[in-house]
Amino acid sequence: MRIYGDSISGNCLKVKWVADHLGREYQWIETDILQGESRTAAFLAMNPAGQVPAVILDDGRPLAQSNAIIIHLAEGSDLIPADAYDRARMLEWMFWEQYSHEPYVAVARFHVRYGGKAVADLEPRLVERGEGALQRLEDGLAASSFLVGEALTLADVALVAYTRVAHEGGFDLARYPRVQAWVKRVEGALKIA
To answer: Is the pTM of this model over 0.70?
Structure first.
């Protein structure tokens, strides 16, 4: 399997972490989005959306979109709950991550860390929604160690990717102690630093 990803991208790192956790062999192909490497003709022929991550599976088929990729990789593993309701809750968190977390937390991080913007110059609505997403995580962790009960699932992998670096976008994780503890648990379970 070949994974095309940019190491600065939480969406790409999700795929790497799941592959590593599951002991899957792969070739990592660093694809620098800041240099437009996902917009070349060769890349667009593989993934017309021009986004990373993208994978070429062992059988040659391409697959894109981080959460689709990690679901495919984790099929049949303990990262996907066997119980139908718990599996649906995992998916609920994963869909929420792409719609209500990543567009704010990750975008603020990108503007500050890679775009050189001051935190004070971020759009107030972006910051407000990012803080709301972090509070939603904090509340969601009130009753369990992980997002879907007491075991690591793909929901945790999906959401830890940008939450763990939220401070790079100006978010203070000290305001969310359950989130901070959860980040450490997920990093430990995935063996990431």
So the answer is: yes
